[in-house]
Design brief:
Blueprint lengths: L1 H5 L1 E4 L4 E4 L12 E6 L4 H6 L22 E8 L5 E8 L4 E7 L10 H13 L3 H8 L5 H25 L1 H4 L6 H8 L4 H8 L17 H4 L16 E2 L2
Parallel strand pairs: 3-6, 3-7
Antiparallel strand pairs: 1-2, 4-5, 5-6
Helix pairs in contact: 3-4, 3-5, 4-5
Bound molecules: zinc ion.
């Protein structure tokens, strides 16, 4: 099991630790992220060390049992400092699972609230260049634009998909964070979408959704995922 823990490295681009690709049958895959339903902020999650309370009672690959599914420690997220994400491992399915709390962006450093502030700043700016310059004054403009678009594109793609998934609720709603805020009358849209679209999270792209990387690219290393249904919410906190 130590091979998995030791395989983690700091992904500088996204600022979070993940499992490295080793090419072995046991390590080398992103964990399958499942939803940990909570209304806590990321700071509260750390203060209360919510990962200790998180439980995943059944193996998502073998819900009837019969495998050696067990808790498999935690992995660390860089922001906020002290964040640990609980994970489980099914040896028979060669698959690691983790429970990602609603406050966190998926496969991206930081919280969904922080991400939402970035998206809103861009949506309200006159130009993307002006927003990027303002948001990342610490780096050159081309890098700031790449940083910003890595966030903007997948969030807007997820919002567009969600508008289509919920025509009764969202028909006519602009596929922007500002549009969703106004339409739904809520302060923070992205964490709320984990609840609203909980049955569809596995189909929605990160950082809003929890879609695994192999779901769009046909990764031959993908574990046997056909038995994994929509992410089961795990109410806590
Ligand atoms: Zn299993």
């Amino acid at each position: 099991m130590d091979s998995l823990a030791n395989a983690e490295h700091n992904d500088k681009d996204f600022g979070l630790k993940r499992e490295a690709r080793h090419g072995s049958s046991r390590a080398g895959r992103w964990p399958v992220q499942l939803r940990l339903a909570t209304s806590l902020t990321s700071a509260e999650y750390v203060t209360r060390q919510l990962w200790h309370d998180a439980t995943l009672e059944r193996c998502p690959l073998h819900p009837s049992g019969g495998c050696s599914f067990a808790r498999h420690g935690t992995y660390e997220r860089v922001n906020p400092p002290g964040t640990q994400v609980p994970r489980w491992y099914c040896p028979e399915g060669h698959c690691t699972f983790s429970l990602l709390a609603d406050c966190f962006a998926c496969r991206l450093s930081g919280s969904l609230q922080e991400l939402e502030e970035v998206i809103v700043a861009v949506e309200q700016a006159h130009t993307q260049e002006a927003a990027a310059d303002e948001l990342r004054a610490d780096i050159e403009l081309p890098g700031a634009l790449r940083w910003m678009r890595r966030r903007l594109k997948p969030v807007h793609a997820a919002l567009k998909l969600i508008v289509g998934l919920f025509p009764d609720l969202l028909a006519g709603c602009p596929a922007t964070v500002c549009g969703f805020r106004q339409w739904l009358g809520i302060d923070f849209v992205l964490p709320a979408l984990r609840e609203i679209a909980q049955e569809q999270l596995v189909q929605l792209p990160p950082p809003v959704g929890l879609r695994p990387p192999w779901a769009r690219g046909g990764d031959s290393k993908a574990p046997n995922q056909h038995q994994v249904g929509p992410d089961p919410p795990v109410p806590i906190g």
